[in-house]
């Protein structure tokens, strides 16, 4: 079993819809959480990170963490075609020098 | 500001050939990383350098060597390429262990 599980998709939504992405993890040493966005043929870029349980908002993006369930989510409101990308969750392992463990990524397609 | 620069962008090798992937960052980051990304497997850490003068193995180091040439540059060498090393290779850097990673745009390697 992988330490971080993520549905690969693809997830296809119409423009303006809410996109809901999630990851589950098994390692209790993961204490903070990141979401990266990766456009085709590009490197991942940091979208959001959060340390605590609960919600964090940044514009159209909301990151949600439930440590008791080992479950994190990313919501994209009013989705745009430019949001079409692969979204990867990532978790630093403090017991291993904060090396990041990545989920496999969910491919999102927002149709105009 | 270039960020993390990887060369070459594309490469095709025959089995048994060797090559070096180059990575340079201009952000004065202390730590540098090499990942490979394969469909369904996500990003997997090959080697990393927590600081200039140190290198350590990651999750999938077999068949690779690295050199931290100076604070800016971190190269990845394939001594005898195998078809299993066909992948997209990403270099990344960060200033400290609790900072987010900054990625290059990858080297797409095919081994025939």
Explain this structure to me?
The complex is a heterodimer of chains A (112) and B (112). Chain A has no helices and eleven strands. Chain A is mainly beta. In chain A, strand 6 and strand 7 (61-66) form a beta hairpin. The mean pLDDT of chain A is 92. The mean pLDDT of chain B is 95. With 112 residues, chain B is mostly beta strands. Chain B is globular. In chain B, strands 2, 4, 5, 6, 9, 10 and 11 form a seven-stranded mixed beta sheet that branches. A four-stranded antiparallel beta sheet of chain B has the order 1-3-8-7, with no helix packed on it. The interface between A and B is medium-sized, with 22 and 20 residues.
Q: Please state the average pLDDT score of chain A.
A: 92
Q: How would the global form of chain A be characterised?
A: globular
Secondary-structure class of chain A: mainly beta
**Cα gyration radius of chain B (Å):** 13 Å
State the share of residues found in helices of chain A, binned by percent: under 10%
* H/I helix tally of chain A: 0
Strand content of chain B: over 45%
| Count of runs of 4 or more consecutive helical residues of chain B | 0
Largest sheet of chain B: 7 strands, mixed
pLDDT below 50 for ≥5 consecutive residues: which ranges of chain B?
none
- The end-to-end distance of chain A, rounded to whole angstroms, is 37 Å
What are the SSEs and their pairings?
The complex is a heterodimer of chains A (112) and B (112).
Chain A: E1 4-6, E2 11-14, E3 19-25, E4 33-38, E5 45-50, E6 54-58, E7 61-66, E8 71-76, E9 85-93, E10 99-102, E11 106-111
Parallel strand pairs in A: 2-11
Antiparallel strand pairs in A: 1-3, 3-8, 4-5, 4-9, 6-7, 7-8, 9-10, 9-11
Chain B: E1 4-7, E2 10-13, E3 19-25, E4 31-38, E5 42-49, E6 56-57, E7 64-68, E8 74-78, E9 87-94, E10 102-103, E11 107-111
Parallel strand pairs in B: 2-11
Antiparallel strand pairs in B: 1-3, 3-8, 4-5, 4-9, 5-6, 7-8, 9-10, 9-11
Question: What's this model, at a glance?
Answer:
The complex is a heterodimer of chains A (112) and B (112). Helix content of chain A is 0%, strand content 55%. Chain A is an all-beta fold.
């Amino acid at each position: 079993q992988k330490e971080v599980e993520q549905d690969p998709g693809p997830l296809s939504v119409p423009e303006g819809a809410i996109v809901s992405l999630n990851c589950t993890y098994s390692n209790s040493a993961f204490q903070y959480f990141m979401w990266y966005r990766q456009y085709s043929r590009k490197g991942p870029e940091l979208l959001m990170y959060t340390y605590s349980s609960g919600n964090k908002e940044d514009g159209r993006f909301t990151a949600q963490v439930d440590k008791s369930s080992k479950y994190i989510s990313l919501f994209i409101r009013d989705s745009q075609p430019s949001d079409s990308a692969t979204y990867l969750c990532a978790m630093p392992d403090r017991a291993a020098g904060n090396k990041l463990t990545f989920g496999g990524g969910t491919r999102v397609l927002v149709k105009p | 500001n270039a960020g993390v620069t990887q060369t070459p962008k594309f490469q095709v090798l025959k089995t048994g050939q060797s090559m070096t992937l180059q990575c340079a960052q201009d952000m004065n980051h202390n730590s540098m990383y090499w990942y490979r990304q394969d469909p369904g497997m996500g990003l997997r850490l090959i080697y990393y350098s927590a600081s200039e003068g140190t290198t350590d193995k990651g999750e999938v180091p077999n068949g690779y060597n690295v050199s931290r040439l100076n604070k800016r540059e971190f190269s990845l060498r394939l001594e005898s390429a195998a078809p299993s090393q066909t992948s997209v290779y990403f270099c990344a850097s960060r200033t400290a262990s609790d900072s987010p990673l900054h990625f290059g745009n990858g080297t797409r390697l095919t081994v025939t």
